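Recall the central idea of this unit: under ordinary conditions, the amino acid sequence of a chain determines the structure it adopts. In this exercise we apply that idea directly, starting from the sequence alone.
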Amino acid sequence: MMYSFYQSMNYQSNEVLFVELFYLLW
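Accordingly, the structure predicted from this sequence is:
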């Protein structure tokens, strides 16, 4: 999960928001 979060951060800013929400839920 953390890997996905890091990848998203490097990929796009918009995706980071979505991942952050999911990460918080997780």
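DSSP finds two helices and no strands in the chain.
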